[in-house]
Batch of 2 targets.
Target 1
Amino acid sequence: MGGRLLNYIIRRVFQSVLVLLVVGLVAFSMFRFVGDPVDNMLGQERTDADIERLRAVLGLDQPFPVQYWKFLQGAIDGNFGVSYRQGRPVSEIIVERLPATLELAMVSGFLAIMVGIILGVYTAIRRDGWGSNVIMTVSLIGVSLPTFLIGILLIYLFSVELDLLPSFGRGEVTHLGWWSTGLLTASGLKAIILPAITLGLYQMTLIMRLVRAEMLEVLRQDYVRFARARGLSERVVNFRHALKNTLVPVITVTGLQLGSIIAFAIITETVFQWPGVGLLFINAIQFVDIPVMAAYLMLISVMFVGINLAVDLLYVAIDPRLRGEAS
Amino acid sequence: MTLLDIQALSVAFPTRRQTFVAVDNADLNVEPGEIHGLVGESGAGKSTIGAAVMGLLERPGRITDGTISLQGDAISGLDRAAMQALRGQRISMIFQDPLTSLNPLFTVREQLTETISTHLDVTDAEANQRAIDLLTRVGIPEPELRIDQYPHQFSGGMRQRVVIALALCSEPEVIIADEPTTALDVSIQAQILDLIKELARERQVGVILITHDMGVIADTTDRVTVMYQGEVVESGPTAQVMGDPKHEYTQSLIAAVPRPTVKMHRFPQVSYGGRETAFAIEDLARNWDKPQVDRAKPLYQIEGLTKRFLKKGSLIPSQRQFMTAVDRVSFDVMQGEVFGIVGESGSGKSTIARMIAGLYRSDGGSIRFDGQETHTLGDDYRRQIQMIFQDPYSSLNPRMRVDQIIAEPAKHHGILAGQALKDRVDELLDRVGLGKEAGLKFAHEFSGGQRQRISIARALATQPRFLICDEPTSALDVSIQAQILNILKDLQEHLNLTMLFISHDLPVVRQMCDRVMVMRNGQLVELQETEALFAKPQQPYTQELLSLMPRLDALKAAPSV
């Protein structure tokens, strides 16, 4: 059993590396279309010779596979190059920004999963109750409103009108080694509420509707009827027997959504001026800051690949039928 | 004192337009140690009675009248908490399908101990010990080892034993068994029924055995209650009701049971209630492009047919493990005959059918149709073979109208188009007794038997020469089964069809087939003329299979047709 699992993980890691290499190759082939960084970096007084020299220094005169190869060589040593715009090492910039994004993503992901599952189960059990109908109707808003609009509405309501919560920034930050956290100060906690809700609302409604649909399906199954017939309590039947059976599809979607929470925090970070990697990426695109873009894309693909691996392992943990023919 | 006493019970399902009365004024009582059979066709209300006793009626169903008493105390009308305390504690239930009634994500130990701890005040260690004892009692070998396995690691029969163990967790006084053996093979069925009989005798449990299978009733029960459309039509000791039925419905129901002992030309139908629908086969035969058949010539010559399924995949070919589903099987199917294949589940009978139909690719051997290798034949060959599947619910696309379903094969093969196609569909619907208006509806608006007629109409749309019927009636009631089997017989006779008939129901096979092949574990055990096989089985396995057929001697002799 253990050997089989280890075997599986090794195979998956191997596949993941392949995926990462392909993502990088595609990314580098696209950078040519973003614009010419040299334009931004040199002032009005530039000569053609300046341009040629800078290109040679940055390695931009070489074909993209060669640029990619050099990027990879650097990446193995943990060296992702120097930002064209800020003139500092990319790894340093990203490490500085990453905690903000990850913290935001985790808080909103946690909110989305907890609230989504609880509401999903509730609306499935009381499928005709007025409470469920209200929740289902309100959830339509969460699915259909675009993120930036929700963010602006929340800012208007809670920051401008009620003046309860800050409308931008991370609040006061505590440093724990290289990691910076806003979760330990009152102003940091207040600052994360609105962005987390904005970022997680869509995922929450999605998870809720998915859990509800799966629950309705599972509650019709014979093993749920048989669990009732054995005299088990409603709570055990609903939350132990039924909920666990809804989890496999829910985990698939939730895993992918968690990836996109991190990757697409860009919009929320822009609306709330949240100092995370998303905002960094937007700025990098505007300036054609190739080293930052490349490192960011690789980082996001590592996260997606990692989350997917975790999802696959969770499947096996939840569903014994996927563990192969034992016995 | 009577253990379970149901008096004048009525159950209704009120809907917006009308109230559907599922059970009407039904009486039933069970004594300790008694197995009481509850028999009837689907929709007769027998499962509803079981659900009412358990307090598990699906919404919006409710008990409108009558009382249910356990040991003299009324249990109908108890509130939810009191009912929940009763369920599993004093009344238990066994469901039909052991594959779906156990939660796939929990081990057997978890499901057993959870139930035991709910009902009995015991420590974890005691609950564990009791769980192992229960598994031992229901005949599961190596219970200490198997208790930590998941349901999917048990075979169907073993799973039903686990279900029974779960039902026994707290020494119930009454067990309601709802079609407990319908999903099982005949040999497993016999074992499970024996187990239920033993338990009833030894623990003085009262059992309500709900089934549509007259053979099970005759073999197992002490008393029987017959239901028809929500009403009890007859009740009494099994031998008396089976041997000398008083009510007209019981009589026709018993007459419709296929007998293993005699071969009849047509299946007697349940005539009660005037539900027999005519099937106008002669009209269909008139404008049918009938193939010439020569019964001495084979239509199919099958040699050394083999199919392996991958059990464990690997990049390295030598590391792969296979399961041989069909192992070098050779036989001929003669033109115009009905060729039967019998065997337990997993014997490879459906796999053979699928290879013939081209749904599976074989891993060895050859299938020749009219002397030619089938894989060299193109679309026209596929037109000439059609299939009728076991489950009339999942084999029809729920999103398509019935006329589209029937037209699809003919359209696909480009045989007919436009008005001619529409006429063909209308004609087929008329001929299978549904009427052309049925084409505008969707499959879910029909009953199981009607759906199987739609499947037949679909199979006939391309004017095939060869029909594969894979357990075509095992999901149907006796009366509907008789209608469908008669249709198939007529088709074969009037349209010169050749037929491959797969079934695990030996009496049905005896009535339907000219020759029968017995299979086990992918291998051919015996191939004989039907009468010879039933009269003088040569192989020990065939003899064993035949000996397990429910003895229907107790049933009133069928009227000769």
Note: The domain at 90-286 of chain A is CATH 1.10.3720.10 (MetI-like fold).
Target 2
Amino acid sequence: MALVLNEEQQLLKESVKDFLDNKAPVSALRKLRDENISDYDDTLWSEMIEMGLTSLTINEEFGGLEFGYVALGQVLEQTGRNLSVSPMISTVLMSTTFINVLGNVFQKNKYLPEIAKGNIKICLAHQETSHFNIKDINTELKGDGDSYVLNGEKHFVIDAGISDYIIVLAKFETESNYIGVILRSNSDGIKINISRLLDDRKVGDITFKNVKIEKESVIEINDFKLLERVFDISSIGLSCEMLGVSLEAFDKTLAYLKDRQQFGVTIGTFQALQHRAAKMFIELELCKSVVIKGLKAIDSDLSNLNEIASLAKAKLGRTIKLITNEAIQMHGGIGMTDDIDIGFYIKRARVLQQTLGDYNYHLTRYAEISGY
Amino acid sequence: MSENNKDDFRIKTRKWLEKNCPMSMRGKTDDIKELFWGGENTSFTSEDQKKWFEAMYHKGWIAPQWEQKYGGGGLSILENKILLQEMSRLKCKQPLISFGISMLGPALLKFGNENQKDKYLNEITNGKIRWAQGYSEPNAGSDLAGLQCKAEDKGDHYLINGSKIWTSYGDMGDWIFCLVRTDFEVKKQMGISFLLIDMKSEGVMTRAIKLISGKSPFTETFFDNVKVPKENLVGELNKGWTIAKYLLTHERQMIGGMGGDDEKFNPREIALESFDLKDGILPNPILRNELSEYEMDDKIFSMTIERAIDEAKAGNESGAASSLFKYYGTELNQQRMELIMSLTGSSELIMDSEKNKNGYIAAKFLRSKGNTIEGGTSEVQLNIISKNILGLPTK
């Protein structure tokens, strides 16, 4: 399990970079925000589908490319660098992973080819309080084996407003029995309230009131470890995007240090700034290592994925905070203005930090896994 | 190397080590001074130590990656990695601790002439000569290129006058590789040469330096009209700075990697010995946080070493340079020793009890403070990264 990309993955990374640099740079996010007509750019999404980006982690038997998560990670790093807005996180990372890991053959046959072709978008509704915790679930599925009813509330559901389907994480019968449900987002009894986030993206609060569920829509979770695996994979995917955000914020800051003149010299000559920049570089090198390790751990089915995932999300959470804070500080006054792009990075960073658990959550989880 | 060959090499290596590494040469090493250092002033401390060294020497695994004609084993990077993994699995002690292997060797391989390589590399691998390093001077620490110890051209020899400081185990060394000034008129980096000096020569003297830990692993080394044959010059005259920089990269890697060996105290083990868990959790939340934060950085640092090796094997230029490893490895090691001092509380503050080997941990703790100074301070490493990797301007 060498911690390097193979040729195919390297090629994908480069072509996605070229594509997003052109089609979805920060100016595209700015335009979405200012025009406020749609949540994402549908033309861009169509081209991403055409490139096969929706089918990277789907097996060939379900119409996918079967390139694996190392490949998906390279795409997410690039969407991070450009702050590109698309349903990649909700549909391709979280929901596809949920179905990949937990879905039965019928469900895989039904949904995965449609995702691969780009015909459907799915969001994952799991969180119920202001802090991520998979054990904090009160949404409840009740039923007798043939038909079921779903009741509960979900918060912070990424892309809730644009998805065709919702995967809901619920409890079934007992406190510790988790279950998944996949249903059309326009089903009777569903109310979705959309909010704009700090990073100008949209999430939804969803209420489920006596929503009727067919048996075939129930995703059984027989092993809690598999549910954890879904979120571990998703956390590593988010860490890839966080790496991209951090690398780009750092590159922009470094360029500024080489350009900005004060006291008659370039500010990059000041040792007070140089040493901080060098420390950021070191932290980023460590981040690259844990991210590639995480991606490889998914594809090679390593048994300590939970440990690596929490290490990655914690480390990236701490580093992205450092980098985006320093980015603003080193840009000085101009960094506080909406005129330049650096502010978009700190805003995306804070949202990514909270999504699926922040530094504190994952470091605590790491300690638990480690037996202390 | 195919997967099959890899497995084959691993199995053969494992079998050989199991057969040839005596039981007493396995397990934790509390003090690296217990190990075999080679040289004329040292002898084996046990029959097993001798057997282990000789077995490894005949196998060529004292310097596994050196060519066989220099007493090496001719192993590839990958084979060497497998060997190290297998040695670490069995907890084999290093058969020879030698600055010759880690520092002088790489410089000779790159800059030495064939005579020098043939003579000195073989004397390193067979354990005959123990090398010391003469770089820093009392007035040339971080500003190493400002060194003043001079070598005058006297026709058939150089005449050396001056002094060196921070010579590791200088009193035990047979030979010393030195940076000397051979030109005072040019830019300071351009007037430095790299010389090999026999420490038995007339006019060489060492004096031990007592450290805050109470120990004296370093000496000052004085040169008073010492004659050195001209053939002992490595590389070209006045081009020693290039060799010095190259060598410092190896030294940095070595110091940076000191936290990464199996002999280190494990803070988690110490935490679990020192405290009773309550509901499976360490009772002090701040210590728990410190421990998990340290482990996070330690584990990810190990992944970074792993990635750098994989990148090198794949032929990619790795951004992770030796300065990164030197900086992070030593900062991490200090953090670990601080954590251990917190975890052990007052018990490791006692300095005259057999129970804790006379404050052995406290001495290690004090010693770790030097890690971020020796081999180029942390600040010097950050300067190097900022200038050479990030390309930040100096003026």
Note: The mean pLDDT of chain A is 97.
